[in-house]
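Issue: copy button drops trailing tokens. Both records pasted manually instead:
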Amino acid sequence: AEFREQMDEELARSGLHAGRLARHLQQRLAVPRHDGWQFGLEDGHLDASRLAQLVSDPQQRAIFRNELPRPVSDAAVALLLDCSGSMKAHARPLSLLVDLLGRALSMAGVPVDVLGFSTQAWNGGRARRDWQRAGQPHIPGRLNERLHIVFKDAAKPWRHARHGIAALRRPDLFREGVDGEAVEWACERLLARPAQRRILLVISDGCPMDTATHQANDEHYLDQHLRQVIARHERAGDVQIRALGVGLDLGVFYRRRLAVDLREQIDEALLMDVAELICRP
């Protein structure tokens, strides 16, 4: 509740509103759907119910009808936040960015998951101790326990998720990061939703890093796994994966990405740039 109160005060001072961003997202993510008919037109589909008018008045031309399209958002979005230790410094601006972006997506009719990933411990934990008791076998794989966090479920209305978003400011969440498994988890959640487009935005400030895993495996073990997960979904075309690099370009992993500097004040231009990254085909 204290974090939420801080956020509300900061958002009020910023003067930023989600309405314009929501309209932009709705326009870019919407698909046309049939929503009835428009009658009395001079071209289009012949309206059989108006043929009597043509018989009584051969000059009558308004005997056609056309479908009325209505834009409907047919997309699902997940925001996946890197909660590794280095991201703690960005928790305040990141929480504001996610709050505005998620609220705008919800206003646009787009279900949005807000997810995070970290580890249960520093430098391993129970997994590492189990490996040591087993005699430290070669190439053991991940040696830490994952922490996957749901700040907001896509099925929950935004107004009921306000305190969950504020939990992004909890300092005890930020430890290490196993990105590949987190991306796979977020994609699985998206694939469970009925949507024409499924979009994952990963927000991170660097490479995967778990100290215990890094020391006991090949130094590129976690990097390679992340690349494999991304490549698999890109080949399948089932989830469109984008990345927001906090302070750096994440092009080493993601083809569609944007680098941002969260040390600067969040403004409307930044929000529109992030929205454009999400909507880009």
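Record 2 (pasted manually too):
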Amino acid sequence: MNDNFILTEFARVINSDRYQYTESDIFLMEDMQNKEAVFDVFFRKTEDGGFAVVSGIQEVIHLIEILNNTDEEEKRKYFSKILEEEHLIDFLSKIKFTGNLYAMRDGEIVYPNEPIITIKAPLIEAKILETPILNIINMNMAIATKASMVTRAAHPVKVLSFGSRRAHGFDSAVEGNKAAVIGGCYGHSNLMTEYKYGIPSNGTMSHSYIQAFGVGKDAEKRAFVTFINNRRKREKNSLILLIDTYDTINIGIENAIKAFKECGIDDNYKGLYGIRLDSGDLAYQSKKCRKRLDEEGFTKAIITLTNSLDEKLIRSLREQNACVDMYGVGDAIAVSKSYPCFGGVYKIVELDDQPLIKISGDVIKISNPGFKEVYRIYDTDGIAYADLITLVKKDSDKEKLLNYKELTIRDEKYEFKSSLLKEKSYSFKKLTKLYIENGEINKALYQELFDIMNSQKYYFEALDTLSTERKRLENPHNYKVDLSSDLIKLKYGLINEAKNI
């Protein structure tokens, strides 16, 4: 293989758009490279009009690890093949990230326009990270957020992420299954996700496995018996039989019952055992199969349903009282099928302490200026009441919040929409964490992100603080995300300044 096509991890850093390097060349020529820039990563809307789930922060920090740990020679090898400007190649060959990275943690619930990640660093260091960061965050958060929607529709029935084969490439399959688990999935099927993140993989059997034993009823039964006898050698291995290869009701379920009996599998088996349905009328068939299993004494046998499921189909199955103990969901989660482009953006909001703003005819595209952080406010029952985006530097609303003083939360667009929080009548949590300071990673915070199940636990705990109305999948009740008074004043002051008002 040509050496040009052997890529090291550093290729992830240059997984970028050329304009970022074109602009960096100009910044270097104009001696702007040391200006301190602040960039925010945020999104403008979600599929259901509600919240999103943060995932990908671990991978973003690792991206910066790669940048800082790659030696000058290797950087030069890459940059010299794609850039012509020698001065820029020299600069980038020596570049390391020396700034700060602030972020919400994996598993956090986040709303539109809130800074999920904030990069504060010398201009070129921040600039070249734009596309690789968005590439990570948009994929991860699309999948984690879709998984949240699917698992909320299925609750309390568990969901497995089975979409690796439909994922958009290697990273999408591996990181995507991790993101799905953070977003609420009970498990996944991908071996590399297990290897990389330590989350055990799950699986049943395929139609081709059964077909390998021949055609028809007898062949299917042989496939089942062989599967059980081999898999049961390890205590607690799951024994889930796929029963729709030939005829679910007349052949498949009866063969499953015979195979369980012949192999001595019953409700005393320590692992999971049961059947999977992957085609046909899942609601009707699940009820028929549940009846037969119970009649034969297999009351603990589980029924897993698959076949192009999503949150809408799952809700329909619930309405039909389908008999189900587990859902396997593929492409709906793996590619966030109904909303595949998450739409995260990376916008500059400050340069050398000068707040900056992007103005647009589309109100949704007007950015919030300045170096900011996010606080979540809870009522006396511990229910999330509102989020407040404040300026990091002196901000009167933030000072009131930190001292539990009386605070007015107001909608920036509608002055009459306001809420008064009385002194000491609320609690709060700062969502923004400092993961990298002056180029040095906070090891303790970083290590937390490697425990994926802990990130899932954090997500579930955050979900529990939301009112039922704000968790519904259609037209969720509006959640207040307000700007502090000082931030509103700064924002509209910059708008007026830009328009020379």
